[in-house]
Amino acid sequence: MKKIKVLAIAPYQGLKDLIDKVAGEMNELEVHTFVGDMLNGVKLVQSKADLDYDFILSRAGTAELIQKITDLPVIDMKLSIIDMMRAIKLAQNYSGRFGIVGFKSITDTANIIGQLNNDDLEIQTLHSIAEIEKAIAHLKANGVSLIVGDVITVRHAKKMGLHSILVTSGRETVMNAFSDIISVNHYLSATKEKTIITENIIRHSNESVLVFNEGKEVIYSSMKENDEISSILVKECASACSNIEDEDDLVIVKSIQQDSYHITRKKLSIVGKTYPTYYLKKLHSPLKPMDKSILYKNSTDSPQVDLDTFTTSNKLFTNVIENARSLAETDTPILLYGEKGTGKDTLAHAIFQRSRYRNKPMVIIDVMYMNDKKWELLFESDNSPFLEEDMTIYIRNLHLLNDEYQLLLESYFSNSFVHKRNRLVFTCDSNYSKAMEQGPFMLYLRNELAVFPLTLPSLNERKEDIPSIVSLFLSEMAPKYSNQILGLKPEALNRLQNFHWTYNLDQLKRAVEELFVLTNDFYVDEDTVKIVLNSITITTPESTNPLIHTNKTLDQLNKEIIEQVLIEENYNQTKAANRLGISRSTLWRKIK
Ligand SMILES: Nc1ncnc2c1ncn2[C@@H]1O[C@H](COP(=O)(O)OP(=O)(O)OP(=O)(O)O)[C@@H](O)[C@H]1O
Fold it and tell me: Where's the Sigma-54 factor interaction domain (predicted)?
């Protein structure tokens, strides 16, 4: 068995000899003893710092000073009552007056003995070495000629021409100190063993752990690397410490360079103090963090969209917002319907921000960017977001799901509990294809999941909101442009309100942007609006064209193009057929 290595600092030679003698009888200990008092005891310990000792043994004030400069446990050979009584008995045999001088550890014991024996002892308690001479001089002036104390006091007494008795430690004091060392060592070894095991478990897990104190400093880290990514992660966690007042645990996903990291924060509370503790894990996904098909978004990253800032004078939209407000706090799956650009995506984010799931990221699956490989990842991978818990799973652009994936999704959802573990939100273009509405997944959503449908009115249905939306867009864009626009002239605004908006808010936003570019005045005039409306009627915004997807068959693409043209022509089949260069009957055959 490994011996316990002890460095002992004895205040006088006699105690060194006693310590060595007692240590020789104890098999568990390997003791190296040196003589040193308060003044040189600390220096002795510092000079032997690299010698791998387990404990330091010393006495009274010297032990106290040593503990301040070392992390090793310092065991104090406390003076016992017997040690003190021995010294007092010797002093009482002396014919002259005697006094006791020392630090609290000596004088407390002396006071107890005085009270027990009903003796009126002359006692002077020191608070620093500098007080020794003054204390002895005071006693000397009162007729004291013998001083009882420790090594330093005795040395001063002699210098000042007084007799002295050194309080010595007896065998039982040394024995007690050694038995303290053995029992503390037993406890520390068990704790150390547990700490080493815990450290090894953490090191071999695929998670790193970071613990901060209340001052946001890292007090524990199991991060193996000390590279740029680690320091970014530490900074991310430190900044997340600012929100520690939040009651709930927090989960965020951070993208750094080519990888994503999953960070979970838990609050560790120990004896009234809170230690924000972060568990960090690299996500092993074949997807790049910025891949638009499957994205993790934290509520802190996405623009803060508050349901309370959705202002409207429109009855239909007021209804939608009120329903969204009450639904946000529930677990009910929600299907947001509406034409392109009516604000479905914005509303989905606002619902997420208001829900109880906002402390975890929202997984956004965009059907527009999915392909066979990515669907496979969702259905089969161990890292599939469908295996998450307590998250918001938001599937965008449901109308682009083809029959095959409707069937696969329906079967996956029916056989897994993805909807029981997570909050589901869907968006679907209401103008797209009536046939897809009858697909297996759409029927499953309605009949089995009982999704709550919220239909957002088109901009044409809420024209009364156009003035306030325009002013919102103007102020949103102002920082980008050097000219200052305060608003639109009434005729100009009138034109915008009377226009037929095919792409809703998206299209209005684009128009406002063009107005910004073309206007040099404080107010936009009617002519500029006319020019802009003409130009946006001719061109179709690039971003509004979701048709070109290599994962679709030619038939599907044809069908989608026809549907798009039909929407743009307000379902006028003659106009749509003319634009497509086919007959009305061919058009009819293709869409049936
Ligand atoms: N309540 C709102 N206040 C201000 N701007 C809004 C609001 N709702 C939506 N927008 C803006 O209108 C535009 C279209 O909104 P959004 O992308 O949410 O519509 P969408 O219906 O999801 O579109 P798509 O059908 O193309 O997916 C965006 O630029 C968005 O910022």
Answer: 310-517
